[in-house]
Amino acid sequence: MTLREKPGDGAPVTGLTLRPLRRSDADDWLALRARNARWLDRWEATTPEDLGGDRRPGRTRWQRAGRPPTFAEYVAALTRAANDGSTLPFAIELHGELVGQLTVSSITYGSLCSASIGYWVSEHVAGRGVVPTAVAMATDHCFFELGLHRIEVNIRPENAPSLRVVEKLGLRDEGVRVAYLHIQGRWCDHRTFALTAEEVPDGLLARWRRAHQG
């Protein structure tokens, strides 16, 4: 599944595409992460099992071995999650260049109809509207194509660049979740920002475009 930003009056950014992450992205993805290590690593999610091998039932083979997955294993895991409908993993491309990643995760239907969005982007395109536009595109897809009701984004309180993303998009601050996610070897607080479909009847991308024009 591929989502493309359609050019138009007030478009915050042009040439933006969200498309599936592929095994063939390995070289570009690994090089991008290496160049942005200081920019990204402090926000990198971990699990307690990353500290050593974990042979409990249900663990992946790299968790059992106490090692990170290879890129191919990582893409295969995301593809399986996409196939079962729980995740939408996207590569972020700007004018054909891989510049980051956005993942819609924890997709739940029934009485909840909700999902979470996480993202990272290369420092060299930060502040240019790439991430807000990507989040808006993914949110509209979740609301209008998947029929979800609520989207949330969880952010470390000290992650100023990411906080600016949700501020630009006008997501509602729902407060702090204590020790919510395991980040770089410890449990960390996160602030939760959310939006429901009723708040953006014509779409989050349309609202973001209007805000950008203003």
Automatic annotation (TrEMBL):
Gene3D superfamilies, per database record: 3.40.630.30
Molecular function in Gene Ontology: protein-N-terminal-alanine acetyltransferase activity
Alphabetic keyword roster: Acyltransferase, Transferase
GO cellular component, one term: cytoplasm
Domain of life, per lineage: Bacteria
InterPro entries: Acyl_CoA_acyltransferase, GNAT_dom, N-acetyltransferase
UniProt domain N-acetyltransferase: residue ranges: 16-198
Record-stated family: Belongs to the acetyltransferase family. RimJ subfamily.
Protein name: GNAT family N-acetyltransferase
Annotated source species: Sanguibacter suaedae
